[in-house]
Amino acid sequence: MLVPRTLAPHLTVKTLQHGEFDLTREKPSLMTLVCFYRGLHCPVCGTYLKELERMTPSFDERGVSTIAISSDGEDRARQMADKVGAEHLRIGFGLPLSVARQWGLYISSSRGKTSIGIEEPELFSEPGVFLIKPDQTVYWLSVQSMPFARPNFVEMVQALDFIIKNDYPARGEYTGEV
């Protein structure tokens, strides 16, 4: 289980237009927002990534870089990028499921075609959103076992304003006896 204030797992993936993404080389002034999504087959992901694309400039204004990553191959990732109009948002692809598991993501198996008529991969990861500090420590995380009820990006931007103003620390770090 990942815990805030501890090192994030290693993360390197190819991106569609920005070369290789390596979390250890990310140097935003505040944090990196890593959004793991299920893949092209997921209609909820398409809507969610459209919102992240729309909000990426707001994150950028606050010193937060963004990337959306799935285990889809390059072709499916490109289709998703086209679907969401990814202009500001980096799209990463080819996430190994072993790495997804290190990040605490749930893994699901295919149920065939989805409601939008696209075949699910044999195995794929469920969604998760993470804020990672430049020192590679986890600041905030949310992991879902379902595609529904994900963190709201507008609320996250509002929270970042509070975090910046108040130098608010990462919470949920205690791992001792209770």
Number of domains: 1
Structural class by sheet pairing and helices: alpha+beta
Q: What radius of gyration results from the CA coordinates?
A: 16 Å
What is the N-to-C order of secondary-structure elements (H for helix, E for strand)?
Answer: EEEHEHEHEEEEH
* CATH architecture verdict: 3-Layer(aba) Sandwich
List the helices and strands and how they pair.
Layout: E1 12-15, E2 20-22, E3 31-36, H1 43-61, E4 64-69, H2 74-84, E5 90-93, H3 97-102, E6 107-109, E7 123-125, E8 128-132, E9 138-143, H4 153-166
Parallel strand pairs: 3-4, 4-5
Antiparallel strand pairs: 1-2, 1-5, 3-8, 6-7, 8-9
Can you summarize this structure?
GO terms for molecular function: antioxidant activity; oxidoreductase activity. The protein has one domain (6-166): Glutaredoxin (3-Layer(aba) Sandwich).
Task: Outline the structure in words.
It is a single chain. The chain has one domain (6-166): Glutaredoxin (3-Layer(aba) Sandwich), CATH 3.40.30. Helix content is 28%, strand content 22%. The protein is built from four helices and nine strands, in the order E-E-E-H-E-H-E-H-E-E-E-E-H. The protein has a seven-stranded mixed β-sheet, covered by helices on one side. A two-stranded antiparallel ribbon has the order 6-7. The radius of gyration is 16 Å and the shape is globular. It starts with 11 loop residues before the first strand and ends in a 12-residue tail after the last helix. The mean pLDDT is 97. GO terms for molecular function: antioxidant activity; oxidoreductase activity. Residues 2-165 form the Thioredoxin domain. This is Redoxin domain-containing protein. InterPro entries: AhpC/TSA, Thioredoxin-like_sf, Thioredoxin_domain.
